[in-house]
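hiii, so i know i said id send this last week but things got crazy w the move. better late than never?? heres the sequnce for the chain we talked about at the cafe, plus the structure i predicted for it. fair warning i was half asleep when i ran it
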Amino acid sequence: MTRSFHHIAIWAFALLSLPMAADAAGEAKTLNVLFIGNSFTARHNLSTVVKAMAEAGNPGLTFNRTDVIYGGRTLKDHWRLGTQNIVKQSTLTEAEEKATIAALEKTLAADPKDKYAQSALARHRELLPKIEANRQPWDIIVLQSYRDDIEGNPTPYAEYAPKFAELAKAQGARVILYETSPVTQNDKPLTTAPNPAPVLAKERAIASLAKKIDASVAPMALVALRCQTQRPDLTLRFVNDAHLNQTMAYLTACTLYAALFNQSPVGLPIDSITDTRSFEGERNDRTKDRDGNPITRKFSDKDRADLQRIAWEGWSEFQKLP
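okay and structure toks below
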């Protein structure tokens, strides 16, 4: 992919601001990135799409991604399940990990049906003997919201994102707030323009939180609004599934790219998205998505260009919010 001098200059600037592991010559080559979330991160193998975009847009970069996923859970739940230990793995002690395991065992004794505690306990038991092998600090930590950023004062997201951010910053990692927007995603083409007021109100709250903890943001409510305004023919969620569809997943990956590098995704060659959940009808067809359409969507050149541009414009607009 051909890059203009402008893009090269932005990437050079980004290198100066990103914590990266360096090779023997001192040239930045690696990013270790932790994604914390639920199915809004797991679906479409989102972090692998971001990895593909990151490496395509920045030749020579190795983007190492790790996901900690608990379906339907929020950052508050992740804290209960001990995900903070994975955030601070570079300094985690054996005593801290044993205490987390003991707490999860106690939780399961009280409620044996707590499947999330079961999953977390297995994760932490596996981590315990690997503490010393996992001393590599994270460069970037992505904190996904999910309905925990809407109600409350402070919202649960505004309460727990700073807790994770404090641990991230202690090891020199940047934080990205991946804001989901499940209630504003449309499952049918729009015939009237959406109301921007509630979206902008929410984005101002997210911008305030980001400023407080010195985080970057993937402002998906604002990006979705821009897409709905400019391309009302596109849908952003499935009809038969409340999750983001391939289009919204592509927008999200492009916006995360912008947040990662302070760089436009326009021109990236990645042109397809494959969901991780297949059609559930009389015959379980793994080639179809939840609406019965091809599970892999390859975007036309126009759609790809529009989505990349919309993501960049939405991210750039967010930077100007008061």
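btw Residues 1-17, 19-26 have pLDDT under 50 and may be disordered. thought thatd interest u
miss u guys!!
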